[in-house]
Amino acid sequence: MFEDPMMKMWVSFIAMGLMFLSVILTIFSKEKLRGLFRYFFLSVSFIMIMASGLIIFLVVFTGPVPE
């Protein structure tokens, strides 16, 4: 799946960025939003954190790349 070590690094950076954005979106929606918008943004945040968890799972369990 990840043949190039640099590609594996960039994919993991993308996953960490998704986690960061998810936290920011959750904090913003809990403090600033009300009603339907709050639940929409919390749902988007949940989807982002699940996607980043899946990406990190794949990166970690694919093992080391061949040299």
Report what the structure shows.
The chain is mostly helical and 67 residues long. It has one domain. The protein is built from 2 helices and no strands. Helix 1 runs antiparallel to helix 2. The longest helix has 28 residues. The two termini are 15 Å apart. 9% of the residues are buried. The model has no long low-confidence stretch (mean pLDDT 91).
List keywords for this structure.
67 residues; mainly alpha; 81% helix; DUF2768; DUF2768 domain-containing protein; transmembrane; transmembrane helix; membrane
Q: What average pLDDT do the residues reach?
A: 91
Give start-end ranges of low-pLDDT stretches: none
Q: Structural class of the secondary structure composition?
A: mainly alpha
Order of helices and strands: HH
What's the N-to-C terminus distance?
15 Å
Strand content: under 5%
User: How many beta-strand runs?
Assistant: 0
Question: Gyration radius, to the nearest Å?
Answer: 15 Å
Keywords: Membrane, Transmembrane, Transmembrane helix
Pfam families: DUF2768
InterPro entries: DUF2768
Protein name: DUF2768 domain-containing protein
